[in-house]
Amino acid sequence: MESMSKSCYCPACGFPLEFEPWTNGSPSDEMCPCCGIQFGYDDAAGGDLQRRGELYAEWRRTWIANDMPWHSSAMSAPKNWNPKLQLQDFLES
Predict the structure, then answer these.
(1) Contact 34/10 with Cβ under 8 angstroms?
(2) Amino acid 3: pLDDT
(3) Residue 23 falls inside a structural domain
(4) How far is C-alpha 88 from the chain's CA centre?
(5) pLDDT in tens, 10-53
(6) Containing structural domain, residue 58
(7) What are the phi and psi torsion angles at 25 (to 5°)?
(8) How many domains does the chain have?
(9) Residue 83 lies in a domain
(10) DSSP states of the chain as a string?
(11) Residue 90: inside a domain
């Protein structure tokens, strides 16, 4: 897989996405298949980027507290998926 910019990763859980969560201030309206956040709905912050970052941190804490479940029923988790390693790599980058 080609290296993606950090903007192509879910800002809540670090899962690599096939879309940009936000582009030029507009949400994708897509959901992260990993943690289930919907961009433009769950992270709506009235254009306040600091608040959006806080929403991602809150979402992440809740996802972790729920044992990091795979969200999507339409898409299976990748083979050998390790949410702890995914999150660690994302937060360290």
Answers:
(1) yes
(2) 44
(3) yes
(4) 13
(5) 999 999 999 999 999 999 999 999 999 999 999 999 989 999 99
(6) 6-73
(7) 80, 0
(8) 1
(9) no
(10) -----GGGB-TTT-PBPSS-SEETTEE---B-TTT--BTTTTT--TT-HHHHHHHHHHHHHHHHHTT-----SSSPPPTT--HHHHHHHHHH-
(11) no
